[in-house]
Design brief:
about 350 residues, mainly alpha, 16 helices, transport, membrane, cell membrane, MetI-like_sf
């Protein structure tokens, strides 16, 4: 087991280097880098300083200022030197400092985590708490009117993009046209610090309701149908027929014999789904509901060419994704001892 784990950890290193190298190379050819962005901001600031009549008092940025900007952002060094320096810092988990926010990348990520964790946790737990029992019920009543009706409902929810549903929720319940029942921005109210404990909990739930509903509806179909199909596959197997022939009740057969084997693919997928809920939050959902999370941070960093944030978040997310994949493989063996590490390596 330990040799397998060691091999997987060692394989993470070239994967990380490959992702970072490819991104670094692409960055070198993308127009409008941080130096150009800073020059543009300087020129715009000089134009605005010309007065209320739009007079341009000073439109140029001299070569000395450009060289100072290149030195400030590290672009006065050759690409290879910058690349090696980046790998060395990432090896020490030093993600650098944002060009434009004047904060370390770590502090930026930590400051955005509450939003991503809030949406991710609620999306994960609500999805599984509803989808797993629903999938079991659909498998037991396969082909019934209940099965057909619930399949139609979850598939319609899956077909509606989260941001479209978010717009609809805002129009209906956010004061867009009909009712002003829920707030339009942030996770808490401005007076949240002065509220009692119960008031804080209610205020938080009040703010998080619409974003979570918009995020979670499209997630029901996959988990529900996966649960249903997994249970149907197990119900049709020989050991279930044998258990029924021995006179065991349908409830005992379902929960004692079928349940454990059918949940294998779901349990194995828990780590990836749990972590993925944090880091794959919809950018459009965060923008729509004015939630300053990791998705919005990544988008703004790409737009502004804030390369330390882009590369730092990419490095962190890739590392977490690789670790999650390893944990998922270990879960296979933990849930089903018949699976050996030698089989996983094939």
């Amino acid at each position: 087991m330990w040799s397998y784990i060691l091999k997987r950890i060692l394989l993470m290193i070239p994967t990380l280097i490959g992702v970072l190298t490819l991104t670094f190379v692409v960055i070198q050819f993308v127009p409008g880098g941080p130096v150009e962005q800073a020059v543009h901001d300087l020129r715009r600031g000089q134009t605005e300083a010309g007065g209320g009549f739009g007079l341009r008092t000073h439109t140029g940025v001299d070569a000395q200022q450009v060289e100072q900007l290149k030195k400030l952002y590290g672009f006065d060094k050759p690409p290879l030197e910058r690349y090696v320096s980046m790998l060395g810092k990432f090896a020490r988990f030093d993600l650098g400092e944002s060009y434009f926010r004047h904060q370390s990348v770590w502090s930026l990520i930590v400051s955005k985590l509450p939003v991503s964790i809030s949406i991710g946790l609620w999306t994960f737990f609500i999805t599984y708490l509803i989808s797993v029992p629903l999938g079991i019920a659909k498998a037991v009543k396969n082909g019934s009117k209940f099965d057909v009706a619930t399949s139609l409902v979850v598939l319609v929810g899956f077909a509606i993009p989260g941001f479209v549903l978010g717009v609809l929720l805002l129009v209906l319940f956010g004061g867009g046209t009909f009712w002003q029942l829920f707030p339009l921005r942030n996770l808490t109210s401005d007076n949240w610090a002065t509220l009692s404990l119960g008031g804080k909990i209610l205020d938080y739930l009040w703010h998080i309701t619409l974003p979570v509903v918009a995020s979670v509806v499209g997630s029901f179909a996959i988990v529900t149908m996966l649960t249903k199909n997994a249970f149907l596959d197990e119900i049709r197997k020989q050991y279930v027929l044998t258990a029924r022939a021995k006179g065991l009740s349908e409830r005992r057969v379902l929960w004692k014999h079928v349940f454990r084997n059918a949940l294998l693919p779901l349990i194995v997928g828990f780590p990836a789904a749990f972590i993925g809920a944090f880091f794959t939050g919809s950018l459009l959902i965060e923008t729509l509901f004015s939630l300053d999370g990791l998705g919005l941070l990544s988008y703004e960093s790409v737009v502004r060419r804030d390369y330390p944030v882009v590369l730092g978040t990419l490095y962190l997310f890739t590392l977490i994704g690789l670790a999650t994949k390893l944990i998922s493989d270990l879960c296979y063996v933990w849930v089903d001892p018949r699976i050996q590490f030698e089989q996983l390596e094939r």
